[in-house]
Amino acid sequence: MEYSVLCQTYARIDSTSKRLEKTRFIAELLKQSGESLRLICYLLQGRIHPAWNKEVLGISHKLIIKVLAQVSGSSTQHIERTWEQTGDLGIVAEQHIRSRTQETLFSQTLTVQHVHTQLSRIAQTQGVKSTDIKLKIISELLSNVSGQEAKYLIRTILEQLRIGTADATMRDAIIYAFLAQEAGVDANYTITEREAYTRVTTQVQNAYDRINDFGVLAETARKGLEEIKQIRITLGKPIKIMLGYKGTTPTNALKTLDKPVLFQYKYDGFRVEIHKQDDEITIFTRRLENVTEQFPDVVAYAREAITARNVILDAEAIGLDKHTGAYKPFQHISQRIRRKHSIEEVAKELPVEVRVFDILYKDDEEVLEHSLEHRQHILEQTIHNHKQFLLAHTIITGDEKEAEEFYTQALREGVEGVFAKKITSTYQPGTRVGTWIKLKDTHEPIDVTIVGAEWGEGKRSGWLTSFTLAIQDEEGNLCTIGKVGTGLKEKEEEGFSFPEITRLLEPLIREKKGKEVVIEPGVQVEVTYEELQKSSAYDSGYALRFPRILRNRTEEKNVEDITNIHYIEQIYREQE
Ligand code: ATP
Pick from 434, 397, 403: which is nearest to 417 by CA? Predict the structure, then answer.
């Protein structure tokens, strides 16, 4: 398929905010994608790979400005000025390429395949000459595109496509394109059989949650629904984890979940998904990133403790005090996640303990559809007793007193709280479920992304301060909910600090207006607050009263994982 056809669809999707319309435009394109179907699915989401593959293009705004100057003959200052006005280098590229292409004829028609190959080359190019090579690839691509194509090409290269092709939209488009009949969807994309539609959507979603790959999902859907039902977990590829809702007390949880209930310590660490395939151990974060290299100690413990030939475990890695062996809060080990050098030494300085709480796969069989009670039983037979690789502390009880005591004991031992889990429940990857209820002692914090900040003054000069916070609306668009300037430390050694957050945010500055800067979303933080108020000062319609930053959650949460407006509404209702 020609790249221009894909770009025309980008423009159509971009032109509407209605999810149903976006879905139809994508479905139309998928139907005519032919051999390029898989690549088109990735490119539609502004990626070159499926979601589980975290390889990035890593191209800076600066490099794009340089290429645009070269290709269009304009000065870098001129390009920077138009960038400041529009806030989008894609639009800048469109304007500059459009004026240029009036004189030049394209030498080559770009295909989707070719663009994808060149983008993959950019991602893989490393080493001393890499910037020159990347620059050459981008300028070659740009010399063969129209204005519209330049806009979407540059946005893709900067990994900022943002046309609203969220996962649910992609899933529905795949159903509309290839499984319309089975799902009771007619030729006008109207759902005529609601029950069939719900059933097929669940089947397709279940398949997606096992592979995290819209390319493979679409190719399989094109073969038929039966093939979709056959999709299984692949060892070595990460699966989205399951999450719970907040509850109130163990006694209430017993009422909600049908007695007896499984109660389990909720450790304040770092979620790890551990895959074992013969002797090979792979560790993923909840963002599906491969962190095996950063945790050689966990790899060693897993090899010693796991008795099964192959397995996928859901677990928490908790930081330990190297002298006393006591649990340390999450921040303690968070720095291990990005570590690239002196990994062995850091592992000794910041040791961890692994607590396994679920199992998804064992010895060539998926076990996620067994009941939790059965899975716990399988777990017990899968893990040897090991000092630093253990099962999560668990009881099954229907007794209120016993449940309350277990909770108190958890808090006394310094863990965050407990999880109450329904013993008949299956493991549902990628979903927040009502069958897991978390019970914590604290006021529930929210996760937000930073979209603006101000340069500090006086003793805080040189640091970004006063951060504008955003959550997601129903459509997944960002909307502001307040400003925060407290909670951060002044010195790096004391924890999450102003210097650290400044370092993270500075490369994401999009626009400057005096002291104020607009930030490209990419840094997620957890904030607590005294109260939620209705307010017209922020787009969400709510404001946080006395907010305070608790911790950096960027390693664990993408922009799509931050708190949404439904949750805020729920908190507001509970508070009222
Ligand atoms: P939180 O801020 O509490 O981590 P969250 O939105 O990240 O909230 P929740 O569903 O509220 O996710 O809490 C689940 C997290 O608790 C998991 O991601 C996991 O890292 C951790 N955890 C610790 N112990 C357990 C356990 N026994 N079972 C499930 N998750 C556990």
Answer: 403
The pTM (predicted TM-score) of the whole model is: 0.79
The answer as to whether 190 is a domain residue is no
Neighbours of 389 (CB within 10 A): 26
Q: Is the pLDDT of residue 441 over 80?
A: no
CB of 392 closer than 6 angstroms to any ligand 1 atom: yes
Residues 239/208, Cβ–Cβ less than 8 Å = no
How far apart CA 137 and CA 132 sit, in angstroms, is 9
CA of 245 to the centre of ligand 1 (A): 9
440 is catalytic: no
Q: Does 357 sit in the ligand 1 pocket, CB within 6 Å?
A: yes
> pLDDT-based confidence at 536, cuts 50/70/90?
very high
Domain hosting residue 540, numbered range: 446-575
Last residue of a domain, one of 414, 440, 466: 440
327 lines ligand 1 (CB under 6 A): no
Could you tell me if residue 78 is inside a domain?
no
Give the residue with greater pLDDT, 413 vs 398. 398
Tell whether the model's pLDDT for residue 530 goes beyond 80. yes
CATH no. for residue 505? 2.40.50.140
Query: Looking at 22, 151, 237, 266, which residue is catalytic?
Result: 266
Q: Using the predicted structure, report yes or no on whether residue 385 has a pLDDT greater than 90.
A: no
Mean pLDDT of the chain: 92
Whole-number CA gyration radius for the chain: 25
How many domains does the chain contain in total? 2
436 with 514, same domain: the answer is no
